[in-house]
Amino acid sequence: MTIRVSHLHGEHIAVAAANGTEILRYVYRPDPDPFESRKPYAHP
Predict the structure, then answer these.
(1) What is the extent of the structural domain holding 37?
(2) Are strands 22-27 and 12-17 parallel, antiparallel or unpaired?
(3) Which of 1, 20, 30, 41 places its Cα 20 to 30 Å from the Cα of 12?
(4) How many domains does the chain have?
(5) Rounded to two decimals, what is the model's pTM?
C-alpha cells in the first residue's frame, strides 16, 4: 500500500491513499475565532 503525505506549512498535514482519497487531515493553524472550533484536530 502506498500513501502520500503533504504538509502545507502553518496550515495542515494530509495523508492520502495511492488513489488520491484523503484518509486524514491534521489541522493546526491558529483559530480565527476560538468560539467556532478548537485546533489542532484530526479529521475524520
Answers:
(1) 3-43
(2) antiparallel
(3) 1
(4) 1
(5) 0.67
